[in-house]
């Protein structure tokens, strides 16, 4: 995603919102690598607290470019036509009404501004029973992980599609070759399945299920049951 932003060639001080910023990692990278002014928004106060704490450790030049506020993908705390870029990573599957989020992205962008969004969608290789369990544990809205729903929501937003890149199983294989993420997830999954009573006693049932879900998520990303997609969109310059 950073490479896509680099290719947009945004001037320094361009204004960006990081939707679902979490601990601020991506907001800090956008400010550091490109000199952008980034507003990170997240609905979870704990995430905002972590991001603000991390901001205090940055050099002043970077820290001054980043701020954090509470908000959601469907209610961004920024004026109309005020942003050059909407960055959204691993968020849209958790949004109940994605069409409202895409419309909100269109609202806040200046004419010619871009959205760079990464999310995962389900494929025919993900069995229905597995999808039901996995999406429940991982807090995924099933319809929001349907590529057809995503496409329709984007179309209704009025945003122009600049590029849509399918990052299916081959991407998971590349990630495994480069970083070993899929292999580590498979090893962790084996441990969790081998001694469930031990891990449930140590971490609790809910935490165990989340750890199990996270491992299975990564395995499905590598095997093709879940496919990543990277969408680059633009608000038309007209109107």
Considering the chains and any ligands shown, give keywords for the structure.
single chain, alpha/beta, Rossmann fold, 2 domains, 7 strands, globular
Q: Specify Rg, calculated over alpha carbons.
A: 19 Å
Give the CATH class of the largest domain. Answer: Alpha Beta
CATH topology of the largest domain: Rossmann fold
Residue-averaged pLDDT: 92
- Strand content of the residues, in percent? 15-25%
Q: How many E-type strands? A: 7
Cα distance spanning the termini: 28 Å
- In this structure, how is the largest beta sheet organized? 7 strands, mixed
CATH architecture classification name of the largest domain: 3-Layer(aba) Sandwich
Overall geometry: globular
CATH superfamily of the largest domain: Vaccinia Virus protein VP39
Low-confidence stretches: none
Counted up, domains total 2
What's the arrangement of strands in the largest beta sheet?
3-2-1-4-5-7-6
Order of helices and strands: HEHEHHEEHEHHEHHHHE
Label the structural class: alpha/beta
The helix content, as a percent range, equals 40-55%
- Helix count equals 11
Protein architecture, described:
Helix 2 links the parallel strand 1 and strand 2. The protein is α/β, with parallel strands linked by helices. Strands 3-2-1-4-5-7-6 form a 7-stranded mixed beta sheet, with helices on both faces. The radius of gyration is 19 Å and the shape is globular. Helices cover about 50% and strands about 25% of the residues. The chain is built from 11 helices and 7 strands. Helix 5 packs parallel to helix 7, helix 8 packs across helix 11 and helix 10 crosses helix 11. The protein has 2 domains: about 160 residues, Vaccinia Virus protein VP39 (Rossmann fold, 3-Layer(aba) Sandwich), CATH 3.40.50; about 50 residues.
